[in-house]
Specification:
The protein is an alpha/beta fold. It contains ten helices and 13 strands. The structure holds adenosine-5'-triphosphate (ATP). Keywords: ATP-binding, Nucleotide-binding, Transport.
């Protein structure tokens, strides 16, 4: 079978922010500026119809990657390349974490979903636009009559369904989902995740799914990349990563997931905090929190290296 080119290919991408206090712009030369390396040398690819999840604690650079993918940030190094869509250029949309602030409260839901259809001229007549809006509402588990209501009339889970309908209204084939269920009640999270999985199968969608919560991504992902302080420290097929995590940070992250089969087992809370990306530790950024760290880890930064299980890991201690 010919090897299909990935739908998304990210190669050695870096995104740094100048976080010098404003007055430094005038009085201090460039070399003394403070630079925050939010993403620093990240590479991954996503095949068509698959899900890559990016996980890690707050501040690791996950949202910055999401913004790089949809063009809200420009990489200062490296490249983000998309393959072709089914009919013309690939359309990429983002689903945001907060379904309360991402929908215009003054617009009826029907208009929110119709807007991209009209702007992109995807339907010719008003009646066709209305029919498409009704179809999209049903696709996400709402009813066509919901088109006449305003966002405030809906729960958080329903609003996230509306956001998904709006994204699909563009005929997007690639969705970047930044913590799409983190603002929702736990009982509603599973419903929205199931909807996203069903839509993926039905429409052949490709996802980059961002979360700080490994248990959320477990059943969503084909592949998982674990980020720490702007870099990927481990990347593998989801089943492999959950069954046999290799990087000490991945192991710690997995240890924080509640085990439904052994709810009374002692869990180890993640000790310590992610260091500041403005002044990261020398060597492996995880070394101050790592029980396996030795001299080399405090001096050199480990590269992501492929292993026999098809995964990649960046650790000197393995
Ligand atoms: N526009 C910006 N200007 C300056 N610093 C930024 C900017 N955007 C992000 N950062 C910093 O970059 C680092 C990575 O942020 P990012 O939001 O990508 O992390 P994250 O893993 O998504 O965390 P969270 O889950 O809290 O959103 C953080 O230290 C953050 O403060």
């Amino acid at each position: 079978m010919p090897h299909e080119a990935p739908l998304l290919e990210v190669d050695d991408v870096a995104c740094w922010f100048d976080v010098s206090p404003p007055f430094l712009n005038r009085v201090i030369e460039g070399k003394q500026r403070k630079v925050l390396k939010a993403v620093d040398g990240v590479s991954f690819s996503v095949p068509r119809g698959k899900t890559l999840s990016i996980v890690g604690e707050s501040g690791c650079g996950k949202s910055t990657i999401a913004r790089l993918l949809v063009g809200m940030h420009k990489p200062m190094r490296g490249s983000v390349r998309f393959g072709a869509g089914a009919s013309g250029p690939l359309r990429v949309q983002m689903i945001f974490q907060d379904p309360y602030s991402s929908l215009n409260p003054r617009w009826r839901v029907g208009d929110i979903i119709a807007e991209p259809i009209r702007t992109l001229r995807l339907r010719a007549t008003l009646a066709e636009v209305d029919a498409r809006v009704a179809e999209l509402l049903q696709l996400v588990g709402l009813s066509p009559g919901d088109a006449d209501r305003y966002p405030h009339a809906f729960s958080g889970g329903q609003r996230q369904r509306i956001s998904i309908a709006r994204a699909l209204a563009t005929e997007a084939e690639f969705l970047v989902c930044d913590e799409p269920t983190s603002a929702l009640d736990v009982s509603v999270q599973a419903q929205v995740l199931n909807l996203m999985r069903d839509l993926q199968k039905e429409l052949g969608l490709t996802y980059v799914f961002i979360s700080h919560n490994l248990s959320v991504v477990r059943h969503m992902s084909d592949r998982v990349a674990v980020m720490y302080l702007g870099r990927i420290v481990e990347e593998a097929d989801a089943d492999t990563l959950f069954a046999n995590p290799r990087h000490p940070y991945t192991k710690l992250l997995l240890d924080t997931i509640p085990d439904l089969e052994a709810p009374n087992r002692d869990r180890h809370p993640l000790a310590g905090e992610v260091p500041s990306p403005i002044d990261p530790p020398r060597g492996c950024a995880f070394n101050p929190r790592c029980s396996l760290a030795f001299d080399q880890c405090r001096r050199e930064q480990p590269e992501l290296i492929g292993g026999e299980n098809g995964g990649n890991v960046a650790c000197f201690a393995l």
